[in-house]
Amino acid sequence: MKNDCQKDEWGTRCWFETLADQFDKKNLVSYFNHATKGYEIYRRHKVIELLRDNIDLVPGVTILDVGSAMGEMSNAVCSLYPQATVVGIDFISSLIKLASTMHRQPAFLVAALPHTPFKRQTFDLILALEVLYYLGDEDRIKAWHNLCGLLKPGGKLVFTSFLDNGKRYFSRESAINLVAGILEIERIFFDYNRVFNFFSRQLERIIRLKDSIDSNQSLDPQRISPIFRAIFMVTKIPVIGTGLRLGLAILSKAAQYCLGLEWLPRILSIISGKLSKSKNITNIAIIAHKNK
Ligand SMILES: C[S@@+](CC[C@H](N)C(=O)[O-])C[C@H]1O[C@@H](n2cnc3c(N)ncnc32)[C@H](O)[C@@H]1O
User: Fold this and answer.
1) What is the pLDDT of residue 290?
2) CA angle at residue 253 from 273 to 240, to 5 degrees?
C-alpha cells in the first residue's frame, strides 16, 4: 500500500504530513496554500463553473469531497449549493483540524482511501479532485469501487486529474477507462497549462533559492538547477553577494506576486490551447453518473 510512512516518497501519508507541517500562508510556494495561490484559485473557479453549468442539485442533497486538504474546494461547493450537506475527507488529521478551524460550513473527517467510513448509496454528488493518482494501482481500483458504491442511483461524480501519460498521474485513456468502468460518462473537459506550469516552476525556483539563502540551508539538488546553484555560491562573496541578495529579494517578491494572480493561469491556458491543444493538454475533468 502506497500510504506507508515514507517522508521522501511522493504521495505517501508521511510526505503529505511533512507538507502540511510546512504550511505557510504567507508563502505561495507552500504546497497547501490553496487559499491564495493563483493557480489554485483558478482551478477552484473552473470546478465551480463546471458544477454550476452542468449539475443541478435539489435542496437537501449530500455531497462528498474526497481528499479535501485545507477544505477550500469543499467550502466553495457549500457556497454554490447552500442547501446541501457537504462532507470533506482527508487522511491527514492536521489538515482536517485546520480545515475545520478555517471553515465553519462543511464537516471534515479523517479517512484514508481506499476505505471510506460511509454506508453505500449515501451521496448524490462525489468530488474526486486531484487525489486518486496518489494511490498505487490496486488501491486506485479499490478506492474507485468504494467511491462509486457510495453514490446513490442517478448520483453524479466529478473526477479531475493532472495528465502525464500515466507516469505518476493518469493518462487521458487511463482516466477515462477508470471512470467508464463503473459510471456513465456525461462530459469530458481538458485544460492546457503547459506554458503556465513551466513559468510557475521558474518562479518557485527563485523563491526557494531566496528562502534557502535567507535560512542558510544547503540547497536540495533535485529542486535547483546548476545555474541557481552557481548563484547560491556567488551570494557568499562579499559586496557582489550583498547586491545579488538584494536583487534576489526583489525578484522573489515579484515571483510571489505573480504566483498569486488568478488571471495568469487563465490567460496562459487559453493561449496554450489555441497554440496546440494536443501538445499543451495537462488536465482532465470528467462528469459521470451512476445509472438508476
Ligand atoms: C492535491 S491535494 C487535492 C485537494 C483537493 N481535492 C483539491 O482539488 O483542491 C490531494 C489531497 O488528497 C489527500 N490524499 C492523498 N491520498 C489520500 C488517501 N489515500 N486518502 C485520503 N486522502 C488522501 C492529501 O492529503 C491531499 O490533501
Assistant:
1) 96
2) 120
pTM comes to 0.91
* Model confidence pLDDT, tens digit, residues 253-270: 999 999 999 999 999 999
- For ligand 1, atom 16: residue with the closest CA: 134
**CATH no. for 13-193+280-289:** 3.40.50.150
**44 CA closest ligand 1 atom index:** 9
43, 74, 91: residue to mutate for ligand 1 pocket, most atoms within 8 A of CB: 91
Higher pLDDT, 272 or 5: 272
Per-residue cell: 229: 546553484
Per residue in 56-103, pLDDT (tens digit) is 888 899 999 999 999 999 999 999 999 999 999 999 999 999 999 998
Return the ligand 1 atom nearest residue 47 CA: 8
- Which residue from 105, 255, 271, 142 is spatially nearest to 195, judged by alpha carbons? 271
Which residue spans of the chain are classified as CATH 3.40.50.150? 13-193+280-289
